[in-house]
Amino acid sequence: MRLPRPEQIWTHEQRYRILKSPDEIRELHDRVAKDPYRQTFHVQPIAGLSSDPNGFAYHKGVWHLYYQWCPWGAVHGIKYWYHVTSPDLIHWKNEGVGMAPDTVYDNMGCHSGSGIAVGDDLYLLYTGNHRDENWIRTPYTCAAKLGEDGKLTKLPKPLFGPRDDYSEHQRDPKVVYVPEKKKYYIFIGAQNLEKQGRALIYESDQPLEGWKFAGELKVPGFEAFGGMWECPCIVRISGKDVLIFSPQYTKLPGRAESTNHNVYMVGHMDYDTLTFTPDSGYQYLDFGFDFYAAQCAANVEDPDKAILISWIGLPDNHYPADPKDWEGTMIVPRELRIKDGKLYQTPVADLEKVWDGEAPADGTLPGACDMLVTVPEGAFDLNLFTKADGTGGFTIHYDQEKKALVIDKSKLDERFNDEVGEVLEVPVPDGVKNIRAIIDSCSVELYINDGASTFSAHVYPSAAEHGYTVTDGAQVKIWKIKPTVVDDFVV
């Protein structure tokens, strides 16, 4: 089925209303909380739409995460930053609105950005989405500071405004500190006047003042790659630099009809010449139907890993939860390491601490669970969310001729975004050795061959779709997962 698009039923005034009181959405939350597709161990909105993760940072023993939030329903309209915290990246607590569009510079939304802890202070940088009476956009790079009371205080003026030699698409500041240069750098996702994706770089000796335009990021060989680079992120792992971004407005090989993607490159960043030199071509950060706007946490002290989170969703897609006035969830945070020139991704280690006993491997999925399938060499099939007789489901088949996993969601009862594509492939040249599936009420995240590749997707199984089948000879272990997200109404 194809769901009605929210754009067809939401007026401009409804989308961009300012939330004046929690009471305005209390009934909506109470209704949403009863939806059987609500997640049990993934970050999700109390109601309305959540999208890009923002301000992800470790500070004074606490993981802080904000995300884009439109409170009114599953629609892209006015954007707030909603705040959640965690001691371990597994148990998450709702803290309420972290940032609201309440200045002239962000009158139509606090758009995406990042965080960084400096000493006792946590700073948040974001894009202020200003619109004038003619709906002409001016994006400002703004900043705020987290106080001891948990509230953010915005700087009275932006750090800087947009450049007129680029289009209006200048957003999503990622701030990093480079010790060898003794400077802070901001990477801004941008689009040039020829509608090509770019990243702009600003530099300063201080996190909240003195910012100057340094120039455009140069990535040799990628001068005409995509029409906009959203959510740029750069992180150093084991002495290598990893550049992550989301190219828009372009179709890429193996991605069906989607025009929104998440890619990465491993290489070297030269801050003197503002050049990122990749060791090889771009690689997909995740091969799934629904994965976008990935961001690495600031202040991770281990030099050999990064911590990543992303939105399970895509900007132009629509989902079965939309008509129920909520949508969006985050992945389970991942640890990133580099091996053989590429990223290996694994769920954060503490996930195993919330296993709730082992379930029998009897062909039935026990709900929220962590499933490990170790497979024999050769042909391989794993079908999740099948009916009791083993038919249908979310099918995962290894094609030996293509040397790829072929993943097909078209056999599920609840079909959606079929025009974007229901079949995708994951190259696995050495064959499948194991697949770990992290399953919650409306999502599945696959880790293939110890995290050499990943695949994230929304799924909305019917009451009849809770079985699975697997190739003969495969070893299956399933651990139930305890609830780790408290769905408190906190605004």
Walkthrough of the structure:
This protein has two helices and 34 strands. The chain is mostly beta strands and 491 residues long. The protein folds into two domains: 342 residues, Glycosyl hydrolase domain, family 43 (Tachylectin-2, Chain A); 128 residues, Exo-inulinase, domain 1 (Jelly Rolls), CATH 2.60.120. The strands form seven sheets. Strands 24-34-25-30-31-32 form a six-stranded antiparallel β-sheet, with no helix packed on it. The protein has a five-stranded mixed β-sheet with strand order 4-3-2-1-20, with no helix packed on it. Strands 13, 14, 15, 16 and 17 form a five-stranded antiparallel β-sheet that branches. A hairpin with a 4-residue loop joins β27 and β28. The radius of gyration is 22 Å and the shape is globular.
Brief synopsis:
The chain is mainly beta. It has helices at residues 12-15, 23-32, and strands at 48-59, 62-70, 80-86, 93-99, 110-118, 121-131, 137-146, 152-154, 166-178, 183-192, 197-204, 212-216, 228-237, 240-248, 263-270, 275-278, 283-284, 292-296, 306-312, 326-327, 329-330, 334-339, 342-347, 355-359, 369-374, 380-386, 393-399, 404-411, 423-427, 434-440, 443-448, 453-458, 467-470, 475-481.
